[in-house]
């Protein structure tokens, strides 16, 4: 059982584990973060990594991921819309000579040769349906019309303003637990396979969806809540270099600036929700199809 701390742990800055990567934010070894915070080895280091999107990684970054960190697999938790937007951005970047000169990796394949890529849309169809059902009939009709006309971002902004914003990061975390069980099980199962490790998991910011998957893994490893909270809250400082550009993206989908932060009580609330609604992390995993055998494999690979 994870242990709740009486105080909130909010780091003021990131914990430098290795020289900063040139163009990958929020990258860290979760095992080392937890072990350094607790002062004891509770998680195997060098196997469980998290980051923001690595799409703009430089050639040096790509080599370091593969050779220095030994990353074998990349878990991408983003939505179809995010992939479409990123592809458009990359296409535009390729037309700018100055960007091509400053980042030679733009001319390379998006996926690093020799690495396995696991694309798991953690907020998939079930999550989308749960949001749509919360819309008023008039808003649903407007959203459907915009989607049919190809105005995808404008349609999503309706969901953002009318459903996601009122739910907040905590409420959306609950919704993910309730409606994304199959996808969460797939993500957890990937970390229980030795052939995938070391692996880095990411979404766009590497904060919320990535944070949920990492939190569940750490709960399964019986890590104290104060340590899980510390790792989760590190993302806020790690993402500061691109805060303004990310705020633009957040506002485009109808959300306010607080969605760029890390609520310090988020981990404790996810834990309490799991306990109250499902009977705890073990029962939740059984419900979503992440078996006891899978859990044993994950613990054998990641528990220090």
From TrEMBL:
Protein name as annotated: Tyrosine protein phosphatase-like protein
Family annotation (SUPFAM superfamilies): (Phosphotyrosine protein) phosphatases II
GO MF term list: phosphoprotein phosphatase activity
Positions of transmembrane segments: none
């Amino acid at each position: 059982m994870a242990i709740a701390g009486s105080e909130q742990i909010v780091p003021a800055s990131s914990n430098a584990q290795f020289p900063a990567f040139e163009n990958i934010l929020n990258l860290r070894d979760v095992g080392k973060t937890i072990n350094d915070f607790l002062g004891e080895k509770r998680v195997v280091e060098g196997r469980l990594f998290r980051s923001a999107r690595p799409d703009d990684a430089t050639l040096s970054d790509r080599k370091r991921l593969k050779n220095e960190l030994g990353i074998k697999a990349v878990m991408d938790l983003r939505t179809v819309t995010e992939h479409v937007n990123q592809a458009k951005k990359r296409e535009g970047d390729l037309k700018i000579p100055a960007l091509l000169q400053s980042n030679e990796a733009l001319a390379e394949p998006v996926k690093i040769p020799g690495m396995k890529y696991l694309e798991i849309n953690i907020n998939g169809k079930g999550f989308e349906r749960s949001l749509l059902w919360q819309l008023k009939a008039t808003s649903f009709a407007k959203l459907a019309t915009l989607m049919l006309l190809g105005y995808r971002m404008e349609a999503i902004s309706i969901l953002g303003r009318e459903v996601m914003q009122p739910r907040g990061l905590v409420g959306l975390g609950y919704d993910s637990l309730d409606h994304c069980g199959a996808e969460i099980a797939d993500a957890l199962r990937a970390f229980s396979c030795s052939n995938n490790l070391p692996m880095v998991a990411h979404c766009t910011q590497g904060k919320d969806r990535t944070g949920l998957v990492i939190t569940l893994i750490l709960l399964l490893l019986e890590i104290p809540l104060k340590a899980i909270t510390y790792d989760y809250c590190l993302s806020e400082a790690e993402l500061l270099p691109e805060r303004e550009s990310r705020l633009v993206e957040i506002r485009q989908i109808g959300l306010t600036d607080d969605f760029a932060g890390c609520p310090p009580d988020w981990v404790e609330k996810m834990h309490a929700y799991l306990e109250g609604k499902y009977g705890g992390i073990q029962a939740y995993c059984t419900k979503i199809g992440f078996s006891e055998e899978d859990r044993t494999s994950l613990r054998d690979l990641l528990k220090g």
